[in-house]
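User: Some background: our group keeps a shared notebook of sequences we're curious about, and every so often someone picks one and asks for a predicted structure to add to the entry. Today it's my turn. The entry only has the sequence so far, pasted here. Could you supply the structure so I can complete it?
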Amino acid sequence: MTTESKAARPALPASPPLTERQEARRRRILHTSARLASRGGFDAVQMREVAESSGVALGTLYRYFPSKVHLLVATMQDQLQHMHETLRKRPPSEEDPGARVAQTLMRAFRALQREPHLADAMVRALTFADRSVSPEVDTVSRLTTAIILDAMGPPAAHRRPQGQAGTAASPTPAQLSAVRVIEHTWHSALITWLSGRASIAQVKIDIETVCRLIDLTAPGAVAGAESGAKPASEVASGVNPASETEAETVEAATEPGAKR
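Assistant: Of course. Here's the predicted structure to add to the notebook entry:
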């Protein structure tokens, strides 16, 4: 099949919603996947063993999840959903939005830390995912974004009824950009920790540092910067524009021939 014919192929229709029985079967498969991954990581999740342990035929398993990568990315989606529910029940207590996001992400990180083999399997699956896994990867990204946006809101926003997500005020475009940077940093921190290249203490520093972007991009902070805050170059160099002007005036007045 040529590239042109692939591009011209119409998009597949959306899958119909699962029945109660199918949803229960899917839950069993995800539970088995998480259990095997917790025991031995990515390599321990073998599709045949998942099918046998879940009580489904191998062909049935592949209809739900076309590959091990699909299965483990869906497992991460499931884990994040549980994590989100837990975090809503116990919202962060910090005062500033950036600190609340940092506290939330570190709690999520410590939950993954308790299951390092499972965390490694899920992160490796995300790394290996190709275009065929894009819908599942996008769902993982949306869940991570929802967790961050919920943490940005004031404590009262976390006590809304289940299903009502979001912050009390809509985030600014700059804050949404900051959220994307925070997501990338969190994912990178997971990888470096899992590979032994970063300690938990270093991960905490990185997460707290990047989460300051939330406060720096808040509407009040942006308005303050636009209304006369010093440019970063002036702050870094210690230059005072007013002092420069005064110095030039004094220098001109003291030149030979200057009017007294």
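Suggested note for the entry: The radius of gyration is 26 Å. The chain is about 70% helix and 0% strand.
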